[in-house]
Amino acid sequence: MPIAFYAPMKPPDHPVPSGDRQMARSLWAALERAGYRPRLASRFVAFDAAGDDACQARLGEHGRAIAATLLQRYRALPAAARPRLWFTYHLYHKAPDWLGPVVAAGLGIPYVVAEASHAAKQANGSWARGYRAAAAAIAAADLVFSPNPDDDEGVLPLLAAPSRLVPIRPGIDVAPFAAAASRRAEYRRRLAARHHLDVGHPWLLTAAMMRDGAKLASYRLLAATLARLGDQPWQAIIAGDGPAAAKVRAAFAPVADRVVWLGEVAGDTLPGLFAAADLYLWPAIGEAFGVALIEAQAAALPVVAGARPGVAGIIADGRTGRLTPPGDVAAFAAAVASLLADPALRRSQGDAAALQARRHHSTEVGAALLRRHLQPLLARFAGEEGGRPACPAA
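Given the sequence above, the corresponding structure tokens read:
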């Protein structure tokens, strides 16, 4: 069954890696596993980083033109080849969906969103136009899958019924990480030889983009944490790159002799990297959730992270790692120190983390949830319970 897939912030085949791209790819894979045929509707990026109203107006105009073109293209297809549902991943005031609501209404098909956010404080700000467009798209949604509980309070009032909001746990293909975990000693030896690491010391891993704002704040808290660990044996491995790389490295100057910098790492090498480490660290300041946190757990790696609502849905505090108050360097350092001092606890939490990832964050689990909610919606729109009539072209 064909489905139109769109990600207004970053398409799933974007060349720059990020958690957003990974989540889009994971949802695509889950839709395929559920028996659907997602097809990329457009690579149009609706993201405005600067809060420029004129830019947002141009993006809106361009988006409406693309939507009209898509409608013409889809209507020219045989009925069996037309999308039966429109699926948008991640819309908010900086990256609204100018395409999906128009095309879905024009074709008379369901409009579904995964990860929408709506913050009333943006109503009269620099992204007011994008805010209104995002709100209109959310209000038009027949279903909103929510991976971040933090978003629910803003999204629910816009929906026609509370039942249209469906919690979904972010997921990945856990198999490569589980396989790597079974070869931990091998990956550890390779990494030690390549980067002159001491296999007798615990390795603390972080993998994240290096950008200004929340990412840089997390890196700085991480650097302050490492500086507090004193004489405990450890080595840190940091994978990632980006425009704030120089600022990130500067923050780690006091502990530079104990940090290995990998730069940007190819996706297919991540399972081995995660499996080789002893502990995954990420303060998660200002973050909804993190795909890397799931990857770490899938590789049987315990995690210390900031207790953001979405993150708390991934890490079970005291069972698969530790959660600390966001931005609290003392608490974060204490959690890391306690796990450094207890190898047996790290192993038991790592085993629990792998089980958690497999049971709750796998592609298979996500596919089952998507199918459970999309099939009745598709049936209703097919006319079994009366669907939405198609709208004429503008």
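The chain has 15 helices and twelve strands. Try to locate this feature in the token string yourself.
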